[in-house]
Amino acid sequence: MNIIVLIGPPGCGKGTQAAVLSGLLNIPVISTGAILRAECESGTPLGNTVKATLARGELVSDDVMNQIVASWIARCTNGFLLDGYPRTVPQAMFLDDTLETLDMPRPTVVQIDVPASILVERITGRMQCPSCGKIYHRLHNPPARDGICDNDGLVLKRRVDDTEAVIHERLRLYEDATAPLIEYYRAMDFHSVDGRGDPAMVLEAIEGALGLPVW
């Protein structure tokens, strides 16, 4: 059973790598970011609370995240990949307890490391299709037609929290919350890869860390 945790700051490429690894290993991705964005669109009281929290560049509470993740983990019988969770040591401890309760192994943890200056450039330029979810970048991966998805012709959108001021706050919060998390995992099955290269290079480094054949 493959249970993988991807750790990395906003904009490091976790979502891109998670999608590829999901196909290679035939396991689902549990993306807390995608789940929370869907909740924001729902208009429920929880969704409105989450939307306001994300717009301020703050992290959603551990209790909310734990409830969401535990319900998804319970449905996975062949392993899974976590993208965006855990982000704090209490979340990691909750994950360990949940896995033990479900008689699942502890995770393999991969950190994607990218300097802050590169992250700001990446995030402020990214756009996403609201239908198919494809991610573009105005400099590094632009659509064929400006602001229009190549797949379905819909207008691309920027996330509400992708402004430079909010990004700096998110990175500060990430560092504060995640530095202890990385130390927590270092004594376990932990790997750090350089995330500054193109996605294919980063994938190759992750495959090596996981002991997978490099295609």
Q: How would you characterize this protein structure?
A:
- The chain has a domain at 2-114 and 178-210: Rossmann fold, CATH 3.40.50.300.
- It is 48% helix and 14% strand.
- The longest helix is centred in the C-terminal third of the chain and has 23 residues, at 164-186.
- The mean pLDDT is 88.
- A 5-stranded parallel sheet has the order 2-3-1-4-7, sandwiched between helices. It has a two-stranded antiparallel sheet with strand order 5-6.
- The chain has helices at 14-25, 32-42, 45-55, 62-73, 89-101, 116-124, 164-186, 199-210, and strands at residues 2-7, 29-31, 79-83, 108-113, 126-128, 135-137, 190-194.
- The protein is an alpha/beta fold and 215 residues long.
- H/E element order: EHEHHHEHEHEEHEH
What does the overall shape look like?
globular
Low-confidence stretches: none
Structural class: alpha/beta
Number of strands: 7
| Percent of sequence in beta strands | 5-15%
Strand order of the largest sheet: 2-3-1-4-7
Largest sheet descriptor: 5 strands, parallel
Helical amount: 40-55%
Question: What is the top-level CATH class of the domain at 2-114 and 178-210?
Answer: Alpha Beta
Q: Would you tell me the overall average pLDDT?
A: 88
CATH hierarchy: architecture of the domain at 2-114 and 178-210: 3-Layer(aba) Sandwich
